[in-house]
Amino acid sequence: MTVPDDAKTATSTAEVARLWGTLLHLPKVPEDVSLLALGGDSSLLMEIEERFGVHLGADDVLDDLTVRGFAVAIDRAGSAATDQR
Questions:
Q1: pLDDT greater than 80 at residue 55
Q2: Section 15-20 average pLDDT
Q3: Least crowded by CB within 10 Å, which of 11, 28, 35, 40?
Q4: How far is it, in rounded angstroms, from Cα 54 to Cα 71?
Q5: Helix 67-84 / helix 13-24 crossing angle, nearest 10 deg
Q6: CA–CA distance, 76 with 4 (Å, rounded to integer)
Q7: Domain layout of the chain by residue ranges
Q8: How far apart are CA 2 and CA 78, in angstroms?
């Protein structure tokens, strides 16, 4: 998956990093480290979906499990939901 520049990502990486930090009890979350390497699991994925109001399938996130990858996946899922309305 090609990750666009931050300017093109509506859901900021900072928002995702803050949420991960809160959920994983980490003071700082690097943008380029995998969710799994930080101790995340599928229950965290469900919390992320709930907080951002989207559904993320495995295909949406498995290519890039970093903060930036999730920000892009959240944007795509949000766009797809809007397009279906």
A1: yes
A2: 92
A3: 28
A4: 11
A5: 110
A6: 12
A7: 10-84
A8: 18
Residue with tokens 């495995």: 58
26 — phi, psi (to 5°)? -115, 135
Instruction: Kindly tell me if the per-residue pLDDT of 22 is higher than 50.
Output: yes
Q: What's the CA gap between 56 and 25, in Å, rounded?
A: 22
Please tell me which residue, 82 or 15, carries the higher pLDDT value.
15
CATH code of the domain occupying 10-84: 1.10.1200.10
Q: What is the CA radius of gyration of the chain?
A: 12
d(CA 70, CA 31): 10
| Distance (Å, whole) CA 40 – CA 38 | 6
Residue 44 in tokens: 């965290």
Amino acid at 3: V
